[in-house]
Amino acid sequence: MNKKWTIEEIRDYVKKNSDSVLLSTEYVGYSQKLLFKCSCGNNFEKTFTKFKGSNQKKCPNCQEARPSR
């Protein structure tokens, strides 16, 4: 069974593993989009699952384009 994250645990994870800042103040579940502030100053929304697992830790403007298949 997957771990149930708290908003404080997510905030710590974001701080330790990216240059972004978590702006959201509550976390309900894995499908909820959270609000982040990128190091460039742009705000963006991602689910924590995508932020953590898919290496999408930046806004769409700063995110490196993935090579096409």
Task: Please give a structural write-up.
This protein is an alpha+beta fold. The protein has one domain (1-69). The protein has helices at 7-17, 48-53, and strands at 21-22, 33-37, 43-47. Strands 1-2-3 form a three-stranded antiparallel beta sheet. The N and C termini lie far apart (32 Å).
User: Main sheet, how many strands, which sense, barrel?
Assistant: 3 strands, antiparallel
- Count of individual domains: 1
Helix content: 10-25%
Strand content: 15-25%
Number of strands: 3
Radius of gyration from CA coordinates:
12 Å
Give the count of helical stretches: 2
- Give the end-to-end Cα distance, rounded to a whole number of Å: 32 Å
Q: Order of SSEs, N→C?
A: HEEEH
Structural category:
alpha+beta
Q: What coarse outline follows from CA principal-axis ratios?
A: globular
Averaged pLDDT? 89
| Low-pLDDT ranges | none
Sheet with the most strands: spatial strand order: 1-2-3
Condensed summary:
The protein is of the alpha+beta class and 69 residues long. It has helices spanning 7-17, 48-53; strands at 21-22, 33-37, 43-47. It has two helices and three strands, in the order H-E-E-E-H.
